[in-house]
Write a structure and sequence with these properties.
single chain; mainly alpha; Serine Threonine Protein Phosphatase 5, Tetratricopeptide repeat; 0% strand
Amino acid sequence: MPETSPEGGVYEWYQRGVALLRDGNPAAAATLLERAATEEPGSRSILEALARAQYDAGRYQDAVTSFTALTAVSPTDDYAHFGLGLAASKAGELPLAVEHLALAVAMRPDIGHYAKALRRVRARQAAGSP
């Protein structure tokens, strides 16, 4: 059976994907946002929403990929580095997690949960935990 496109265009897909994410349906959001990202691969807003949806759906490696693309598009985005760090941590990629969480902390030392996440991952790394 041929794959059909969702109704509307990229903006509508993005809006519906964000609404699905907000309403607690990250898997459906990710599916719709993946379609939007295919059409607009350089869109910061779409990449962020997609990465968040993938993370919330437990698709941590996919979230690493999307947050990595987001940091490439927007290298000074502290949230992108924070999200990449969290996703990498969940995916078991602790060195990558530490690197990006440390960048987020350096960019925004005023955000306490960035530093807390970095301390947690460093502790896991020191303990040899996956």
